Write a sequence for this structure.
């Protein structure tokens, strides 16, 4: 009833507003909700005009679900009045130049180092204020994720020479234990104390980890890695400083080139002697591992790390789409491409592992037993070095690693940038370039600890605690907020407005029950059985577990902290403040279609 009265008042005042002059009529509009929330006016082509289903000033209307629908329905006494306010502060939201820019950006974000670097390692290991929390997690990832690209850049630069430096034991950084077991010398005998040239190049020349006793004494910053990381962040800045219109063009190269390299490496790996051994190990399941909670935790973390829910990136990218963009089809396409790429990458890596096992005359399961995520920089680098045309394959391989990482960095920082620009538009919207520069500088300074001699220990700590468990917890809170408090019926009605159809019963059951239960199981399992963190010969001391938990909690602690802040600062009785805190408020750039259940 109140909605109809608001619409009638708009129609009555339409003529008066037109008389205020053409300048004001061209200003972008806002919908002011009864609780002070603001919703941006969208595309005037959508339900514009004073016809049926639209308000005369161009704002569309919709039939909202009943307050009783869905868990956490809006109280019967909630206000639903809409007040129209004109403002000249709004700016048109940036959009993608082409649909393929969006798809390649999302695919480039999903298909990243996690597919080539983390997924094969996980298979090998296992036998085959939410908004603020999201931003903090994204920053943590930027602190260590780009360091891996700096390592890859170091390898790339070192590849431009006739003999790759990780193929011989005659370099200044090599020790007496260095043994080139893939040489033609038949008298070479591999022992438990032997180390390969590739391992010593990675640990003693690139990381220089031998100069640090552990996390308690990281040592100095490696100036070579500092310069490599500076170059990486320079590329990142000039790719995203102008927004998605520039980064959308860059991903045409960074998202497609890796596939060409993967295919080349797959063909080369399949022709190596012993490749079949790695393929058998890759495809043969170890059913006993399914009884281990570690397998499920690793699997869940890998899915979240790869597809990217909970990082805010997908929300940021989607916000630049038209309101009626078919996000359902995009999600299916992106997920399918991501899974297929991971599967393909597994063949690329495991064919080489089989080759290495054949050369060493040992089992595949022991080739990279202690290499961990360093699989690429030791085992694969060594395998490439012993191939014909080693320099060529090394260059394209590490160039691929860098491009995979750049895609994810573009996306991760764009998620933070979009969130901050939407939260503080008056302060940052016209200063995007400077804000992006400041953000990149913060990320670079935050990554300095990973560039020290003990930086690899820091990277491992962040990988174990700062991303997987924290992201899973944030997604758990998001699922609870959407399915229980916002309500699945209301959420499905929103999807129907956007796509023209509602999600089926299967999706509703997943949102309400299956996903929360599974995520809670993963969280509890991680807390009950913390991982035993080890890197090379260094076993992390017990105090690092506490430090890791603090890093993980520091991100999603924003959620309960903001809840307490809201309860303390909002007006009304405690019950009114609580109801207001769990009542959805329409807002954002795509609020053309408003569900008016607002307190």
């Amino acid at each position: 009833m109140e909605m109809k009265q608001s619409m009638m008042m708009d129609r009555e005042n339409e003529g008066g507003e037109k008389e205020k002059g053409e300048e004001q009529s061209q200003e972008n509009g806002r919908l002011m909700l009864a609780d002070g929330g603001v919703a941006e006016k969208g595309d005037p082509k959508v339900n514009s005009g004073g016809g049926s289903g639209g308000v005369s000033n161009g704002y569309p209307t919709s039939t909202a679900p009943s307050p009783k629908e869905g868990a956490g329905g809006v109280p019967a006494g909630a206000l639903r009045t809409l007040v129209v306010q004109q403002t000249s502060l709004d700016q048109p939201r940036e959009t993608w130049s082409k649909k393929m820019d969006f798809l390649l950006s999302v695919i480039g974000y999903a298909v990243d180092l996690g597919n080539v670097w983390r997924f094969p390692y996980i298979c090998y290991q296992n036998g085959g204020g939410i908004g603020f929390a999201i931003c903090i997690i994204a920053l943590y990832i930027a602190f260590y994720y780009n360091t891996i690209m700096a390592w890859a850049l170091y390898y790339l630069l070192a590849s431009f020479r006739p003999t790759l430096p990780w193929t011989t034991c005659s370099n200044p950084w090599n020790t007496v234990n260095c043994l080139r077991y893939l040489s033609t010398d038949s008298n070479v005998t591999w022992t438990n104390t032997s180390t390969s040239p590739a391992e010593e190049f990675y640990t003693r020349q690139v990381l220089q980890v031998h100069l640090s006793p552990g996390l308690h004494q990281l040592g100095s910053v490696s100036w070579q890695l500092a310069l490599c990381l500076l170059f990486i962040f320079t590329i990142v800045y000039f790719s995203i400083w102008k927004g998605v219109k520039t980064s959308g063009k860059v991903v045409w190269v960074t998202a497609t080139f890796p596939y060409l390299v993967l295919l080349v490496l797959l063909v080369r790996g399949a022709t190596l002697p012993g490749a079949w051994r790695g393929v058998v190990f890759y495809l043969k399941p170890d059913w006993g591992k399914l009884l281990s909670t570690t397998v499920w935790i690793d699997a869940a973390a890998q899915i979240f790390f790869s597809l990217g829910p909970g990082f805010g990136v997908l929300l940021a990218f989607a916000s630049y789409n038209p309101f009626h963009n078919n996000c359902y089809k995009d999600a299916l396409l992106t997920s399918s491409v991501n899974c297929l790429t991971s599967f393909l990458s597994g063949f690329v890596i495991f064919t080489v592992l089989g080759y290495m096992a054949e050369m060493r005359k040992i089992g595949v399961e022991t080739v990279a037993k202690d290499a961990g995520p360093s699989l690429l920089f030791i085992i694969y680098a060594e395998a490439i070095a012993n191939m014909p045309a080693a320099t060529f394959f090394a260059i394209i391989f590490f160039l691929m690693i860098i491009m995979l990482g750049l895609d994810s960095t573009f996306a991760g920082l764009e998620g933070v940038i979009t969130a901050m620009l939407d939260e503080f538009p008056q302060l940052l919207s016209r200063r995007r370039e400077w804000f992006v520069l400041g953000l990149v500088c913060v990320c670079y300074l935050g990554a300095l600890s990973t560039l020290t001699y003990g930086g690899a220990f820091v990277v491992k700590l962040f990988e174990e605690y700062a991303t997987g468990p924290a992201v899973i917890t944030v997604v758990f809170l998001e699922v609870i907020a959407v399915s229980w408090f916002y309500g699945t019926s209301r959420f499905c009605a929103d999807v129907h407005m956007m796509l023209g159809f509602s999600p089926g019963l299967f999706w509703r059951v997943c949102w309400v029950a299956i996903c929360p239960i599974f995520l809670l199981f993963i969280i509890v399992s991680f807390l009950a059985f913390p991982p035993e963190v080890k890197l090379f010969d260094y076993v992390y001391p017990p105090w690092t577990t506490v430090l890791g938990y603090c890093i993980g909690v520091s991100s999603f602690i924003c959620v309960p902290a903001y809840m307490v802040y809201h309860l303390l600062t909002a007006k009304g009785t405690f019950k009114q403040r609580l109801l207001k805190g769990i009542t959805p408020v329409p807002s954002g750039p795509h609020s053309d279609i408003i569900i008016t259940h607002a307190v």
